UniProtKB/TrEMBL annotation:
Transmembrane stretches, start-end: 710-732
GO cellular component, one term: melanosome
Domain PSI: residue ranges: 33-83
Name under which the protein is recorded: Integrin beta
Occurrences of domain Integrin beta subunit cytoplasmic (ranges): 733-779
Compartments where located: Cell membrane; Cell projection, Invadopodium membrane; Cell projection, Lamellipodium; Cell projection, Ruffle membrane
Integrin beta subunit VWA domain ranges (all copies): 41-475
Membrane protein topology class: Single-pass type I membrane protein
Length: 779
C-alpha cells in the first residue's frame, strides 16, 4: 500500500511538472540559453534563464561529459534520466507580509469611532522571491474611503498688490470648515505668508523703506518686508484662522516675481512646525505674481544652493538671505516625498506660468483668482475634488536591471497598460480600483544578494506598499555540499549539487587531473588537430589533454564529436529548409550518411551536397503521370491497362487547382504535368514507404490553351498595316522635307555668293545697224 501511494505521488508530481512546462518538450526552444558554455554550477544555471534547471544527481554525468550538461530545461533533464527529487528548478513566489483590509467609516459612525487609523491601500508589505527573467505579479487595491482626514495649509503672497484679497481670505476659515464638513469630519487648516528676500534688488534697503515699504500711514502702515512667516499651525479652529489672518498687514517689494518657492520649501519640510499628519495634505499657494527660482539669488549676491532643510526660528525663515531660491524640480521632489498636493490660486495674468508646473509637480491643480479672491473657496473645493478623483501610482528607484509594469482596472473594468496602466480617473468616494504590478529581476550578478526595497504608492497619499525584492540566485542543494568528497577523485573537490568543485590545482569534471603535471605547452598541443586549427577546433575545451566537445549554442540536440571536435551531424547543407534535404530526422535525404559534415550517398545515381539530385531518375510526378491521366481524365492508357497498372493509386477528385491549397501539404509533392492535348493538370501526390500508401488529390479543371482569336488577329494585322503605311508616309514626307530644305539652303548660299562685273558681253549684238551711202560726199 505504501509503495502504491509513493508511486501515485510520484506520478502526480510528474504530471504537475509536465503541466507546468506545458507538456514535456515544449520548452526545448529555450535549451540554448541553458546550455551556455560558461555554466559551472547550479547558481549559474539558474541565472542562465527562467526555464533552466539543474540536475543534482551525482551519477548523472559520465567521465568525459561537461559540467554544463547538467543545466537544461526540466523536461529535457527528466527525459535524460534525472530523478525528479534531484531536480533543482526553484520558482518565484509572492508573499504578503502585511495585508490589512481597506477600511470604510460611514458618516453616521464617525463620532462613535475612537480609532482613527484609516486604510485606503492594500496590501502594505510584500516579499517577492524572483527567479531571474521570470516576472512576479501582485495586486494593489485602492479605495477612496469616506471621512478621510484632510490637512490644508494656506500660503499667501503678502505683497502690496494682494491687499484687496486679504478680506476674502479672512472669511475663508469659517466658510471652508463648513464646506469641508460634507467631505470629512476631520479637517484642519493653517496659514503662512511670504514676500521676498530682504536684500537688494528684491526690496529697497533704505531705512525708511525697511520700516514701511509702502510709504503710507493710513489706514495703517505696511509691515516690514520679510521672506516667509509661519502664522498658524494646522488647527480645526476656523475662528482662530479668521482672527490671525485678520491681524496680518500687507508688505511690499520692488520686483514683480516673489519669493514664493522659498516659502513653499519651508512649508513642506517643516512638518513639525506646520503640524502635518499622515493624511491628505493640501497646500494652497495664492499669488498674483511670478516666482524667483534657483540662480536668481546671484542678483543679490547669494550663491549658496538651497539645502532643502527646515530653517524656521520663531516661525520666521532665517536663511533667506544666505541660501539661493530652490529649483522647480527640487520643490517637485520635496512635494513628492512629503505627499503634498498643491493648489495654485493665481490671477489670470500669471496663470500660464503655473500651468507649466503641472507637468513637473506630482499632484497639482491651478485655479484662476478673481480680482479680490472672492472665489477662493470654490477654487479650493473644485481643485480638491479634481486631485482626489485621480489615482496615479508611482514607485521609488528600482535596483539596476529590474523592470516594473502596471495594469490598471478602473471603474470601467477595462485593463489598461503602459503609462495609462498607472492611473485611474473619475474616482468617487467609495469607489475601489486595482492595479496589477509585475516586477522582473535581472540576471544575478553575484552568488548571493540581499533583498532590495522598493516603495509603491499613489501620488499625493501617505500610504504606501513596501516591496522586498529577493532574487533567487542559489540552489537549495548548495547547503548540502560535501567537502573532500570521495566522488571527486578521492577527496580532491567538494561535491555540490551533484557536481565537483575542484580544489586548487585540480581540474576535470571529477577533478581527475593534476594541473601541475600537465604542461602548459603539451596539454593544449594534444587538443590541436593541426598547426592551423584552434583548440578542439573551436568547438570544445581541452581537459586533461583531451577534447570535451560542446553542443551547438543554438540547438543543443546537435553535438560536435570527433577526437578534436571536428565533426558534427548538423553542418551538412540544408535543402528546402531541412537538414541534408531530409524529412524530420532523415540525414542526407535518406540516401546517404553524414560524415564530418559531408554526405556520402549510398547510390551512385544520387549526387549533390545532400544527395537530393538524381539527373537520371524520373521525378515522382512524372512517374505517376500516366496513371493519373487515365484514372482521372481517361486519357492515354486504355481502360483495361489502366485498371491493371494504376489500381494502387487512391484518388481524391477536387474541382479547381486552387482547392489543392486546402489540403495539408505534409509529406506531399505539388505537381503540374501536361497531357496529350497540351492541357496542364495539377495534382498533389503523397507517397509513403509502400506503394499501397500512395494518395493523390487531383484537380479536375485542366488549364488548356485556348484557340487563336481570328478577329483579334485580323484586327491586329490590319491595324499593323495601317500603322506601317502611315509610318512610311510620314517617313517619306520627312525625308522629302529634309531634301527640299537642303536644296533651298544651297540656293540661298549661291545667291549670296554671286559677283557681277561691268564689262561688255562678248556675245552681245546691238540692235542698231549703220549703213553708209557710197555716193554721199561731204560738202
Amino acid at each position: 500500500m505504501v509503495d502504491s501511494f509513493k508511486m501515485n505521488l510520484l506520478f502526480a508530481a510528474v504530471l504537475l511538472l509536465c503541466c507546468r512546462y506545458n507538456t514535456i518538450g515544449t520548452q526545448d526552444h529555450s535549451d540554448h540559453e541553458c546550455q551556455s558554455q560558461g555554466v559551472r554550477n547550479c547558481g549559474e544555471c539558474l541565472a542562465a534563464g527562467p526555464h533552466c534547471a539543474w540536475c543534482a544527481e551525482e551519477n548523472f554525468l559520465e567521465v568525459g561529459q561537461h559540467m554544463w550538461e547538467r543545466c537544461d530545461t526540466a523536461s529535457a533533464l527528466l527525459r535524460r534520466g534525472c530523478p525528479l527529487d534531484r531536480l533543482e528548478d526553484p520558482r518565484g513566489a509572492t508573499v504578503l507580509l502585511k495585508n490589512l483590509k481597506i477600511t470604510f467609516h460611514p458618516k453616521e459612525q464617525r463620532h462613535q469611532q475612537r480609532h482613527r487609523q484609516v486604510t485606503q491601500l492594500q496590501p502594505q508589505s510584500v516579499l517577492l522571491h524572483l527567479r531571474p527573467g521570470e516576472p512576479q505579479s501582485f495586486e494593489v487595491k485602492f479605495k477612496r474611503v469616506e471621512d478621510y482626514p484632510i490637512d490644508l495649509y494656506y500660503l499667501m503672497d503678502m505683497s502690496f498688490t494682494m491687499e484687496d484679497d486679504l478680506p476674502s481670505v479672512m472669511k475663508l476659515g469659517a466658510d471652508l470648515v463648513e464646506e469641508m464638513k460634507n467631505t470629512t469630519s476631520d479637517f484642519r487648516m493653517g496659514f503662512g505668508a511670504f514676500v521676498d528676500k530682504t536684500v537688494m534688488p528684491y526690496i529697497s534697503t533704505a531705512e525708511d523703506k525697511l520700516r514701511n515699504p509702502c510709504k503710507r500711514t493710513e489706514p495703517w502702515p505696511c509691515a516690514p518686508p520679510f521672506t516667509y512667516h509661519h502664522v498658524l499651525s494646522l488647527t480645526a479652529n476656523g475662528s482662530l484662522f479668521t482672527e490671525l489672518v485678520g491681524e496680518q498687514r500687507i508688505s511690499g517689494n520692488l520686483d514683480l516675481p516673489e519669493g514664493g518657492l522659498d516659502a513653499l520649501m519651508q512649508a513642506a519640510v517643516c512638518e513639525e512646525q506646520i503640524g502635518w499628519r499622515n493624511v491628505t495634505r493640501l497646500l494652497v499657494f495664492s499669488t498674483d505674481g511670478g516666482f524667483h527660482f534657483a540662480g536668481d539669488g546671484k542678483l543679490g549676491g547669494i550663491v549658496l544652493p538651497n539645502d532643502g532643510k527646515c530653517h524656521l526660528h520663531e516661525n520666521v525663515y532665517t536663511q533667506a538671505n544666505f541660501q539661493d531660491y530652490p529649483s522647480v524640480t527640487h520643490i517637485a521632489e520635496i512635494l513628492r516625498q512629503k505627499n503634498i498636493q498643491i493648489i495654485f490660486a493665481v490671477t489670470k495674468e500669471v496663470s500660464h506660468l503655473y500651468e507649466g508646473l503641472r507637468s513637473i509637480f506630482p499632484k497639482c491643480a491651478v485655479g484662476t483668482l478673481s480680482n479680490n479672491s472672492h472665489n477662493i473657496l470654490q477654487i479650493i473645493v473644485d481643485a480638491y475634488n479634481a486631485l482626489t478623483s485621480e489615482v496615479v501610482m508611482e514607485h521609488s528607484k528600482l535596483p539596476a536591471g529590474y523592470h516594473i509594469s502596471y495594469t490598471s482596472h478602473c471603474k470601467d473594468h477595462r485593463p489598461m497598460h503602459g503609462e495609462q496602466g498607472r492611473r485611474c480617473s473619475n474616482i468617487s468616494i467609495g469607489d475601489e480600483v486595482s492595479f496589477n504590478v509585475s516586477i522582473t529581476a535581472p540576471l544575478c550578478v553575484t552568488a548571493s544578494q540581499r533583498p532590495s526595497r522598493v516603495i509603491i504608492k499613489p501620488q499625493g497619499y501617505s500610504e504606501e506598499v513596501e516591496v522586498l525584492l529577493s532574487p533567487i540566485c542559489e540552489c537549495s542543494c548548495q547547503k548540502d555540499a560535501v567537502p573532500h568528497s570521495p566522488s571527486c577523485s578521492h577527496g580532491n573537490g567538494t561535491l555540490e549539487c551533484g557536481a565537483c568543485r575542484c580544489k586548487e590545482g585540480r581540474v576535470g569534471t571529477f577533478c581527475e587531473c593534476n594541473q601541475a603535471e600537465l604542461s602548459e605547452v603539451v596539454d593544449p598541443y594534444l587538443c590541436h588537430r593541426d598547426n592551423v586549427s584552434g583548440v578542439c577546433s573551436g568547438h570544445g575545451e581541452c581537459v586533461c589533454g583531451k577534447c570535451v566537445c560542446h553542443k551547438s549554442s543554438k540547438k543543443p540536440n546537435h553535438a560536435y564529436y570527433g577526437q578534436f571536435c571536428e565533426c558534427s551531424d548538423f553542418s551538412c547543407d540544408h535543402y528546402q529548409g531541412l537538414q541534408c534535404g531530409g524529412n524530420g530526422r532523415q540525414v542526407c535525404a535518406g540516401r546517404g550518411d553524414c560524415h564530418c559534415g559531408t554526405c556520402v550517398c549510398h547510390d551512385d545515381r544520387f549526387q549533390g551536397p545532400t544527395c537530393e539530385l538524381c539527373p537520371s531518375c524520373p521525378s515522382v510526378c512524372s512517374l505517376h503521370r500516366e496513371c493519373i491521366l487515365c484514372r482521372a481524365f481517361s486519357l492515354g492508357l486504355n481502360h483495361l491497362e489502366c485498371e491493371m497498372r494504376c489500381a494502387h493509386l487512391n484518388l481524391t477528385l477536387l474541382g479547381q487547382a486552387n482547392d489543392l491549397a486546402t489540403v495539408s501539404p505534409s509529406s506531399g509533392h505539388r505537381c503540374m504535368e501536361v497531357d496529350s492535348e497540351g492541357c496542364r493538370v495539377h495534382f498533389l501526390l503523397r507517397t509513403g514507404q509502400k506503394e499501397e500508401s500512395i494518395h493523390v488529390h487531383v484537380a479536375l479543371e485542366r488549364e488548356c490553351p485556348s484557340g487563336p482569336d481570328v478577329i483579334l488577329i485580323t484586327a491586329v494585322l490590319s491595324a499593323s498595316v495601317v500603322v506601317l503605311g502611315v509610318a512610311l508616309l510620314l517617313l517619306w514626307k520627312l525625308l522629302t522635307n529634309i531634301h527640299d530644305r537642303r536644296e533651298f539652303a544651297r540656293f540661298q548660299r549661291e545667291l549670296e555668293q554671286r559677283h557681277w562685273t561691268r564689262v561688255d558681253n562678248p556675245i552681245y549684238k546691238s540692235a542698231i545697224t549703220t549703213v553708209v551711202n557710197p555716193k554721199y560726199k561731204e560738202q
